[in-house]
Amino acid sequence: MTNPDAPAGAPADTSPMFLSGGGSVGGLMRSHDWSRSPLGDPSGWPQALRTVVSLMLGSKFPMFCAWGEELAFLYNDSYREILGDKHPASMGAPFKEIWSEIWSDIYPFVERALAGEGTYLEKLPLVIHRRGFDEQTWFTFSYSPVRDDCGKVAGMYCACVEATGQVLAERYRDEENKRLVTLFEQAPGIIAVLRGPEHRFELTNKSYMEMVGRTDLVGKTVREGLPYIEGQGFFELLDQVYTSGIPFVGHAVPFDLAREPGAPIERHYLDFIYQPIRDPDSNVAGIFVEGSDVTVRKQVEDELRAANRQKDQFLAMLAHELRNPLAPITTAAHLLKFGNLEPKAVRNASEIIARQAEHMTDLVNDLLDVSRVTRGLVTLEKEEIDVNAVVAGALEQVRPLIESKRHSLTMQLSGEPVHVLGDRTRLVQVLSNILNNAAKYTPPGGQLVLRVTAHGDQVVVVVSDNGIGIEPDVLKYIFDLFTQAERTPDRSQGGLGIGLALVKSLVALHGGSVEARSPAPGQGSEFEIRLPRIDAAGGLTGDASRDAGAARVEPLRILVVDDNQDAAQMLATLLEVQGHAVTVEYDGRGALQRARLERPQVMLLDIGLPDTDGYALARQLRAIPELQGATLVALTGYGQNEDRRLAEEAGFDHHLVKPANLERVGEILAQVQQANR
Q1: Do 366 and 388 sit in the same domain of this protein?
Q2: Contact, 141 vs 157, CB < 8 A?
Q3: What's the predicted TM-score (pTM) here?
C-alpha cells in the first residue's frame, strides 16, 4: 500500500490503509514497533479494531480505545494534550498503567463498558499526573463497548473533552456572583436596579429598603412602590435619564418620606446617581440607582459651618475689641517707662491709660471668662529667677497627677544656675501646663523627661513623653486658641483648648518661644521652651544684648494713620522719643494729602478708617510715583490669615496686629534705615 501522505522519493509505506492520516500520532502508529505489543502487527488487527482506529485518526475530537485483555491503549492526535508527558510512551501500553493515579476512579466505568454497557459522565473531577505534578481536572466523556467479529466485547472506546477550564470559569463566575450579591446586599449605600420605561424594580438592597421603609418593591414600578415621593421631582428625573440616556448626579438633594401610612414626613438628604443601563444594541433598558443618605452629614456640616462662622466672628471681634484699647495702653506704658517725659506728656499718657482701661473693663464684663486669655492683659512681675527653681515649683503642682498615673519622670537639670528675667508665677504656670498635658496624654506607666540646658544666650526647657502624640494636621494649630486634638475616642481628657495658647502668650511675653514636635501619632510628643538668659548681674547675655542694642534706628520720616486718636498719638510720641520725624492723620483723605506733601519713608496704617479702609488707602498710596519706595505697615486689630492675605494683595510690606510688638516695629524701622544707607 502506498501512503498518500509520504513525500516524493520516500520509501514505500506498507502500513495498512486504516492507519493513514492522523497527524503526528498517526505517523507514530505507522512507525511504532508493534512486535512487543500484545496487539501484534496492525496488518493482523481485527476488523472492529481497524474500524475504531480509522475513526479516531480521522477525527479532531479527543478519542482513545483500549483493546484486548490488557486493554492496550490507542489514541488520536487530539488526545495528546490530555496525556501531556505521558505521550508518546502511552502508545500501545496497558490502560491501567497509563492512568494508574485515577484507575480507581474510572475503572467502574471501564468495567461497565467491558460488560457491554455504555456510560456518559459530565465534568467528572479527576486528579491526574501528566506534567510532573498532581493536577485537579474535570472531564466530560463517554465509554462505549467495542465488539469483535464474533460479537464479543473485546475492548472499549472513549470520546472525551477536558472541562477543567470551563469548570474553573464557572466556579469563578459563581464566586464572583456570590461576592457581588453579598456586596450588593451589604453595601452601606442605597442600590436599586430599575427596568423599562416604567422603572420597574428588579433589584433593591437592604439599605434602599430601610431608607424607603418598604420591602415589597421588586416587581413594582417606582410610582406604585413609592407613591409618597410624587411631586418631589424624582419620577421626572428618572423619565429624563431613561429618555436622554444621560446620567444624573445629585448632591445633598432633599428627600421627604413617610415610612408608614399616616407617619410624619421626614426630611432626608441624598447623594445619588441615576446611571442608564444599555442593552446590546446600546438602547437604554433601565436605570441603575446608587447613592447614600447624607442627612446626618448634611446636618453636621451645616452645624459646623454655622459654628465656624460664629467662632470666627467671635474671635475676630474679641481680638479687635481688646486690641484696640490695648494699643494705646501699651504705647503709653512704654513712654512712661522711658522716664524722661515732660509732666504734660506724663499726664496725657496717664489719662489715655485710664480712659482706655475703663473702656476695656466695660468690654471684659460682657465677655466670657475665656476672653481673659485672649485680651493680653497679663501683668508680669519680673525678677531674676533660676529656671531650676521654676521647675521645682511646677513639679509641686503636677506631681500628684504624675504619681496617680504611675509615670516615670526623668529630670536632667542644668549643672549650673540658669537665670532669666521673668515672672515666677507665670513661668511655673507655663511649665506646669505642659507637664500636665504630658501626664494626661500619656497612658499609665509612661515615661516623661524634663531637660533644662543653657545654650549661649538662651535657656532651653524640653518636656518629652512617650504618649499618644499629636496628629500632623493638629500639630500646626496646637498653640491656637480653642484648638484641641481629639486624642482619645471619648475625648475623656476634656479641656477648653486654651492652655497651650496661654503658654505661647506667656512665653512670648517673656521674649521667648515655644515649639511642639511629634514624630507620629502614638510616638509621643515634645515641647521646647526657649527664654532669654541673663548673666549674674541681671543683664542680657551674648546675642540677646546685641539684639537689644540693634533695636535703635536712625531717624526716619514716618506717617501714622489711625482713627483711634489716643492710639495714634501714643505711637507717634513713642517714635518721636526714638528720634523719628512723625506726623499723624486720622482718616484716609488726610493721609493722602500728607503723604504727597511729606513723602514719608514709612507709613503705619490702620485698616478700619472712617472714610475708607486701609487696603484701598494702600493701593492709592502705591499709585503715587514718589512713594514707590515707601514701606507700608498694616497696623490693625484683625489678624486672621485672610486679613494678612488682603494686606499683601493691597501692597502692604508688613502686617502687625494690635497692640503691635514694639520690638517688631523697631526691626522694621531698622530694615528701612539699613536699606536707605
Answers
A1: no
A2: no
A3: 0.36
DSSP letter at 245?
Answer: -
Residues 538 and 667 in one domain: no
Structural domain boundaries, residue 157: 17-168
CA 347 to chain centre: 60
Note the residue count of the chain: 677
Q: How far apart are the C-alpha atoms of 287 and 204, rounded to whole Å?
A: 12
Q: Are 531 and 453 in contact (CB under 8 A)?
A: no
Give the alpha-carbon dihedral of 150, 155, 156, 157, to 10 degrees: -80
Q: Evaluate whether residue 645 is within a structural domain.
A: yes
**Would 309 be classed as within a structural domain?**
no
CA separation (Å) from 343 to 67, 350, 352, 395? 135, 10, 14, 47
Do residues 475 and 536 both lie within one domain?
Answer: yes
CB 67 within 8 A of CB 95: no
* Residue-level pLDDT at 370: 39
Residue keyed to cell 490488557: 70
Same domain, 533 and 624: no
Give CA torsion, residues 8, 10, 15, 20, to 10 deg: -40
Contact residues for 668 (Cβ-Cβ < 8 A; gap 6+) = 602, 631, 633, 654
pLDDT of residue 338: 76
Confidence at residue 76, expressed as pLDDT on a 0 to 100 scale: 95
Does residue 300 lie in a domain region? Answer: no
Amino acid 372: pLDDT: 44
Asked if 536 and 430 sit in the same domain, the reply is: yes
Using the Cα atoms of residue 633, residue 634, residue 636 and residue 641 in order, give the sign of their dihedral. negative
SS3 175: helix
* 106 within a domain of the structure (yes/no): yes
* Total tally of structural domains belonging to the chain: 5
- Asked if 392 and 417 touch (Cβ cutoff 8 Å), the reply is no
pLDDT < 50 stretches in the chain: 1-2, 4-8, 10-12, 362, 365-375, 377, 484-497, 544-553
Please report, for the domain that includes residue 120, its CATH number. Answer: 3.30.450.20
Q: Are residues 248 and 368 in the same domain?
A: no
Where are the alpha helices (H) located in 459-525, listed in sequence order? 472-475, 499-509
